[in-house]
Amino acid sequence: MAYLLGLTLGELHNLPFKEYNGWHKYFQQRPYGWREDHRSAIIAQTTYQGSKPLNVKELFPSLNLLHKSDEVQARKNKAGFEALKAMVNKKSKK
Predict the structure, then answer these.
(1) Full residue range of the structural domain in which residue 40 is found
(2) From residue 64, how far is each of 11, 19, 88 by CA, in Å?
(3) In whole angstroms, what is the distance from residue 12 CA to residue 1 CA?
(4) pLDDT over 90 for what percent of the chain?
(5) How many separate domains does the chain show?
């Protein structure tokens, strides 16, 4: 993690727990190398000539983790939007 953040180990050890924990969660959702894997997946999909569809999530596990993280966030956003709509509807009925 120190390398990814551009810190020394001493600086990493001196990070406040809340900040360290936030970075840890970030790297769980966006694993190291996911951008490179994404670029490679695009190239693989555009040049692939096989008879079966290419499943890049199997080829690049980091993209599978990224996709799962995006699905969870989309569900949270939808739930929040629905709660907001319900609050607005309650106020308009009064």
Answers:
(1) 2-93
(2) 31, 26, 36
(3) 8
(4) 15
(5) 1
